[in-house]
Amino acid sequence: MLIDYHTHHVRCGHAVGTLEEYVQKGIELGLDQLGLSDHLPLIHVDPATYYPEMAMPMEELPRYVEECLTLKEKYKHQIDIRVGLEGDYIEGYERQIEDILKAYPFDYVIGSVHFLGEWDITDFRQTHGWEGKNRLAVYEQYYDAVQKAAATGLYDFIGHIDVIKRFGFKPEEDVTHLENAALEAVKRHGVAIELNASGLRTPAEEMFPSRRMLEYAHRLGIPITVGSDAHQPERLAQYLDQARLMLKEVGFSQLATFDRRKLVSIDF
To answer: pTM for this one?
Structure first.
């Protein structure tokens, strides 16, 4: 069973390729399931004055979902399309996020922490935000947000759970306790995580999460899915062969898939 549950497309502004191009690439690669999961529109900053090309405009969201559903039907005999969304967790905006998510028939929603306030810690244009900051304090704030995201009940799995390491900014102090606490919150609230292979092409040079975190997630019995986080069709399923190999080495034998917000475990 070959799946990829984390993809981005031209609507979000910082990716290329149409949804149909991703579907056609998925068929070419022999994927059994393809998750379409573009970014939730910005809700806590003004898109007109914030950094450009961060997420699809709000008026595009219904068109995105409609196109996903159209492609799901069009290609149903060739590939199983799952309609998803990567929904930022923004503390204090839980009600607004919930209202948006309830309005559409998603198969799954990825809960990702990109923002600490108005600072997107995953945006290469905003790495200056680390200047003068206590790195441990940033990590504490980030993992606190991950725990809160898991507790909301809004998300099916947590995306790139240790993406805070993306650009190589790490505290001198050990942060194992923060990582473990986040995973324990995920387990406590019945959420899954993903092994996001895109970390291999970032300064972090390892997947999200690390092998150590994967091993702890396995011990806790947390369900796991996989995603390439592709932002262009050519990167669809990139490194997922390595991701599956690592999962098997750690001891995972099943992947989490999602159908109308219900988790379905499959052997791989």
So the answer is: 0.96
